[in-house]
Amino acid sequence: MPDVDAAPAVTATRRPRGRPGYDQDTVLRRAIDLFNRQGYDATSINDLAVDLGVTKSAIYHHFDSKEAILAAALDEALDGLDAAVAAAADATRDERAYDRLRATVEGAVHILVAHLPAVTLLLRVRGNSPLEQSALERRRRIDEQLATVVKQAVDEGDLRGDIDPEVISRLVFGMVNSLVDWYHPDGSIPPEALAAGVAGVLFQGLHR
């Protein structure tokens, strides 16, 4: 006669085939971290499975391929930057381009802090695949939007006119992007202070 008391215990410990002990977001976080440490091209799905302590099929339960993971990471960074630009434009709709630019810089710093690993990965993309080229094109469009705001602020007389607007744009957002090289969200500088500090240094040197 079957042991009816033992059957429920077996059922309780059984896990669906291919389902990892991690949700999709956790898999993505760990993958981004591994891509940043080892390089995307040098990292395989097997490397990620070993890092997570799961099978490769467990990874494929959440993502179809390594490229799908990269796409999700790059979309996270780019969607955040797009949102920062849009929010700054909306918040300063009736103000001068200078105010919009400053709000955009502060918003970009907050996005960088909130999505630091994904933005770090985005800044390391070199266009080695159609996916990476598409991400770079999106990033270029964001840069062009910001360069337009810089030019408007120069034309309105709020930024120095003796420096080419494109140079100003590159200097401003080069400084923001450099934060990925040294800023740690768990350090002593809170995001609000960081955003204010970056904007203060930049615009006290540019404001006429």
Automatic annotation (TrEMBL):
An example Gene Ontology molecular-function term: transcription cis-regulatory region binding
Location of the HTH tetR-type domain: 21-81
Keyword terms: DNA-binding, Transcription, Transcription regulation
Pfam families listed in its UniProt record: TetR_C_24, TetR_N
Bias-annotated ranges (Low complexity): 1-13
Matches recorded under Gene3D superfamilies: Homeodomain-like (1.10.10.60), Tetracycline Repressor, domain 2 (1.10.357.10)
Top-rank taxon: Bacteria
Spans annotated as Disordered: 1-22
This protein's name: TetR/AcrR family transcriptional regulator
Source species taxonomy: Bacteria, Bacillati, Actinomycetota, Actinomycetes, Propionibacteriales
